[in-house]
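Objective 1b. Sequence-to-structure analysis of DNA-binding response regulator.
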Amino acid sequence: MLRVLVADDEPLIVAGIRTVLESAGDIEVVATAADGAAAVRAALEHRPDVALLDVTMPVLDGLDALAELRRNLPGTRAVVLTSFGTEPNLLRALQGGARGFVLKHCAPDELIRAVRAAHGGDAYLSPEVARLVLGMVAPAAGRRQAAAERLSALSPREAEIAGLVAEGLSNAEIARRTHMSEPTIKTYMSRLLTKLGCVNRVEVALLARDAGR
């Protein structure tokens, strides 16, 4: 079973997330928390595979909790729950090592996909979040040149896929756009991460955006 911690200060949301995740059959919510500090304590006790963290929580917010988890439980992958209006927090979460960004009003199957992707070592962004984050980034000339130099190591097909990632497309959407299979796109994503020295697809997207892809 994939073991998940859910942290949110709204009990109804926690209950709804638990119901959605456990309906998948292979996911178990092993702990819940109503604030960031409690989330860190629960994670240290239960050592979940994935921590689902709301950005805005009392005592310790989700991003500070994320930093604590990175320091003390690097094996636990974090997915951030967010809503529009928290743009600076999204960049902080990216820099803090979040493996996913999911909107609170997302479809149930999207939440399940995000948790599974994080557990598998991939990253997941709700398409709306990807576009929001990318729209915030206006690269300076020096950063644009540095990004272009890094992307110059890519093959034409790899560069094309990096550009589609920058558009906020999922692997399935890229597969349909390029007429390739989803496993093939996943293989390309692994190559992109290695060649570009990126931790996740969010960094690939930002780099491609900086380069003007």
